[in-house]
Specification:
280 residues, alpha/beta, 2 domains, 8 helices, 6 strands
């Protein structure tokens, strides 16, 4: 069987999902086509208008972060578009959680891709640094780490073994059963990720520290930051805190406003280590 060409597609405001997808693609060792980065609004709009024409790989790695147990609203409708054609290609589904819950993102993404004509070869839940991680709440700090990446390499090797067809074992690889039911998505209700607005404040700038370098503006995935004033539109801000991560001057901070019960839950999560989950 000739080696498939692998291509990564991801939404990755803070870089963790991109890192995981790239490491998996590297571990597979197949020829690679250019990645499709859906993080920024301009690219997402371009993908819609060009009918996904850059999706040319034989084996597609789709990666998303887990937002309140689900795939992000910013790409939910994009992946549901009838312009996305699987054409019976294989897909690997990756969901990157923040060490609090794995949620249903793997099943949701896999279900959407199957509806679009992809075959689901494998899937994984991987833990990364939580968007809310800060000096007082070290959620998923340092993840994914070297242990995670060793297990990811083993996962890649298992995928390679699954794809190999020999005269002794000529069977086509089997699609996987996703870990949760593939429920229909109701687009008429608000995505639960927007509940994060009740858990965390939007990170407006500290004018005394801000040097107006505009790195925060350049890295915002929803165009929530005004170029001139660098103020944030609260309704557009999804609390990914990419702007906090890229600011070298500490001009933006993560400020949580959780209920005592939720604060306790997140503090307990700091003490746990959610291991990767692999589905083959």
């Amino acid at each position: 069987m000739p080696s498939p060409r692998v291509q990564t597609v991801y939404f990755s405001p803070t870089g963790n999902t991109k890192k995981v997808c790239s490491r998996l693609a590297f571990g597979l060792g197949f020829p690679a086509d250019p990645p499709i980065d859906l993080t920024y609004k301009k690219i997402r709009q371009q993908v819609q208008t060009t009918f996904w024409q850059d999706l040319i790989g034989d084996l597609i790695i789709f990666g998303v972060p887990v937002y309140v147990g689900r795939i992000p609203d910013q790409i939910l409708k994009l992946l549901h578009s009838d312009t996305l054609k699987g054409n019976n290609r294989w897909a690997i589904v990756i969901a990157v959680n923040g060490n609090v819950q794995t949620g249903s993102a793997v099943a949701e993404l896999g279900g959407l891709l199957r509806q679009q004509g992809f075959r689901i070869l494998a899937a994984a839940n991987i833990t990364g640094r939580h968007s809310f991680c800060n000096p007082t709440l070290l959620l998923g700090e340092g993840r994914p780490d070297e242990t995670d990446f060793r297990e990811l390499n083993q996962f890649a090797n298992s995928i390679i073994d699954k794809l190999i067809i020999t005269p002794e074992d000529p069977k086509e690889p089997a699609e996987i059963t996703l870990p949760l039911p593939e429920a229909k998505i109701d687009y008429t209700v608000d995505h639960p990720q927007y509940g994060a607005r009740q858990m965390a404040k939007f990170p407006n700038k500290d004018s005394e520290k801000c040097v107006e370098c505009r790195e925060c503006f350049a890295h915002c995935p929803t165009d929530a930051i005004d170029f001139t004033t660098l103020e944030i539109d609260e309704e557009r801000c999804i609390r990914c805190y990419s702007c906090v991560k890229v600011c070298a001057f500490g001009a933006r901070l993560i400020k949580l406003q959780m209920t005592p019960e939720l604060q306790e839950r997140f503090e307990r999560a700091v003490e746990q280590r959610l291991p990767p989950e692999f589905f083959l």
